[in-house]
Amino acid sequence: SLEEQLYRPYYHFTPKVGWMNDPNGMFYYNGYYHLFYQHYPKDNIWGPMHWGHAISTDLVQWKHLPIAMYPDDLGYIFSGSAVVDYDNTSGFGKDGKIPIVAMYTYHDPKKGDAGQLDAQTQAIAYSLDEGNSWTKYEGNPVIDNPGIRDFRDPKVIWDQERGQWVMILAADFEMMIYTSKNLKDWTLADRFGKDVGSHEGVWECPDFFPMQVEGSDDVKWVMLGSISGGAPNGGNGTQYFIGDFDGQKFTMDKNFEEALAKKHDFWVDFGKDNYAGVTWSNIPPQDGRKIFIGWIVDGHYANKVPTTTWRSTQSLPRTVKLISDNGIPRITFQPVKEITNYIGKKSKKDHVSIGVDQETVLSDGDFDFSKAQIQYSIASLKDKGYTFKLSNNKGEELLFGYDGTKNQFFVDRRKSGKVDFHKEFADKVSIGPRLSDKDLHDADILLDKTSIEIFFDNGETSMTEIFFPSAPYSKLSVVSENGDLVLDHLEISQLKFN
Ligand code: FRU
Fold it and tell me: Is ipTM beyond 0.90?
């Protein structure tokens, strides 16, 4: 159908049919990256939640598997995580089979509809066949609800240093950290965040993991938290906090805390469309990456986007890094390197002079920008800016670039194609601050039929947005503002999929 041709992404994960929201339960085992997701198979809007399931050997091409978990008497299967229990701490392993244990939230719709506060509880399920089939634990729920309306989305990690499981839960506008020895019995160890960060929405889908600071031996703990309102450009977003964890208590890093108090620019992504993102469990140590994936739409218009047979897309998986930016810890994101295995033809240009206020065409008809990567660098901008334009022969255009007078990046999808399905979809230009103070500007940009993911400055500022053009963009041009500039390097790569 036309919708499949125009809107079904080439390499971003979408459900075959029905509704999808958050990525859930991602783990790596025996050659496969597993991805589960919030799924309602019977309609293209949110409904009784299941866990859909897909696998990949390279994080780029996905294979659909049967639904992993269905709602039951305890409720809908809300978001959660999964871990490989190598030491069989849970005792679910049998005959030498290693159990995979998933921890998720039950949302009991009867209680929820009746306005009861205790509708959400935490539960576990296990698989003895590498994630194909799941058995829900007969002792569920493993954590009862203490009377908190929003009490959900457990993310579990093995705390190597202390030999314990650590789990983080979003609960009533803060985080709750639990520990366990066996994944069944959980003890509340700490609460964090009541007075920190943004509280303009409900806290959801947390993550919590240690990372080494690039170029040092320091290890810090990174806490991600999605929030259903108050993101930099409005709507849903994901903020983060960095600090230390002693096995019980999380304490913010001093420099981080000071920087956050001055200016809250600690967001995973500054585009409108990246939510509920969390990281993979059990990536082998010899690989060593932290790999993140997010749901790329905003909750405000997710049930209105112009696809009918399926709804929503996951981001391209991204590698997370922890850097020290003049002593302030920050995380950066880069597209996983596996995407480069799909590069076909390439064009490279060096030292392209761009006259001020003139549109310079960089490519016209040579590339299909519905599956492409664009990379560029510009050595010296000062207060100059630039605007890249992707366009098609229908007069539709997607703009992105940098405003040197304000030191900020932007994405403008106001004329990108179909935009009238929701008033918040294209009412404004999205803005992202430049966080790097390097002289060199660079960007790595991934395009699929309906999405752009921009990693400015090696991923210090990321921006993800979706769009719905009536024909693929086939032309790329650039305009320089406030003076001539030189595009030091430009690379356009065609991505190829069979
Ligand atoms: C986030 C969220 C989660 C919840 C799930 C329900 O988008 O609200 O907090 O578990 O979706 O589908």
Answer: yes
